Amino acid sequence: MRQLIVESPCFQLFVRQAILAAISVHVLFLLVFVYFSIPVLIVTNIGSLLLYIIALWLLRARSFKAIAALIWIDLIGHSLISSEVLGWQSGFHFYLLLLVPMSFLYAFKSQAKRIFFIEAVLVIYLLLDYHSYGSPVMFELPSFYSMLVRYINLVIFFIGLSYQLYVYNFLLQEDESPIPESATTDQLTGL
Q1: How far apart are CA 31 and CA 46, in angstroms?
Q2: Which range has the worst mean pLDDT, 25-39, 51-65, 88-102, 105-119?
Q3: Nearest to residue 168, comparing CAs of 104, 120, 121?
Q4: Which residues 6+ apart lie within 8 Å of 19 measured at CB?
Q5: Tell me, what's the pLDDT at 3?
Q6: CB neighbours of 171 closer than 8 A, spacing ≥ 6?
Q7: Would the pTM count as exceeding 0.85?
């Protein structure tokens, strides 16, 4: 299925839509952090926007491994920094969980590599939980806005996860499409 996924127009469309969605989310959070004057998160979101602009450029060359690496860098970095600044309750840690299904969408040469990446996500998540859960925050948002940011992150996470699973299911069905008769019939004997 490796060749099919990368060459599939559906997969390429999925990557483009994921990049554009990530850009939209980072613009939204950039505006929020500018409003609350949180310089660390302003810089973080500008950095994330630059990574996704580079990812759009890499999409033209179909450099899916490089795009995947940029997404991993962004999701891990953004989760760590935002959780440190706004605390565990902000919900930025949910984005780390999007890396698990992504490990299945981007085919690896070996199952061991996929398992390694999934275990790496688990270790990072547990370390972040250990470090951030209950720790004092660097910037305290007003209660209503803190809850709003958490629920926005939760909704974005569920939309991203649902879309990843939808695309994965679609690609599996595409891979199982029936073999054309010409591939299964001998031209000389008709068998």
Answers
A1: 11
A2: 105-119
A3: 104
A4: 52, 55, 56, 59, 67
A5: 39
A6: 1, 4, 5, 8, 10, 11, 105
A7: no
